[in-house]
Write a structure and sequence with these properties.
Distance between the termini: 16 Å
Largest sheet: none
Shape: elongated
Oligomer: single chain
Helix content: 40-55%
Radius of gyration: 15 Å
Structural class: mainly alpha
Order of helices and strands: HHHHH
């Protein structure tokens, strides 16, 4: 399910009191904080602000690349501080935070 569709579906499914559900989220970079299904979770783990949410999404998006071309993400501070391989690992952790919430 693309972007906020996963979160919207999860919100509706919770009302059904099902035993289990399996969904495959995609297009995280299109997700909006207002559509995220568990804002309380993000607040609890310290990523509840719009700025922090955008940071998670940027890291996650960078983690999808095997390598970066010279022009990609050139304004991202992460890449000025950490090598790309470390940024990819941070992005994988960002994905886990978003999907576990």
């Amino acid at each position: 399910l693309c972007a906020g569709a996963t979160d919207a579906a999860l919100t509706r499914v919770c009302d059904l009191q099902l035993v289990g559900v399996c969904m495959a989220p995609c297009c995280h970079q299109k997700l909006l904080l207002v559509d995220y299904c568990n804002r309380n979770y993000l607040d609890e783990v310290g990523f509840g602000s719009e700025k922090h949410f955008r940071t998670l999404l940027a890291l996650l998006q960078m983690s999808c690349h095997k390598e970066l071309k010279g022009f990609e993400y050139q304004n991202q501070v992460f890449l000025q501080v950490f090598p790309f391989e470390h940024v990819k690992l941070l992005g994988q952790l960002a994905r886990r935070i978003l999907e576990e919430g």
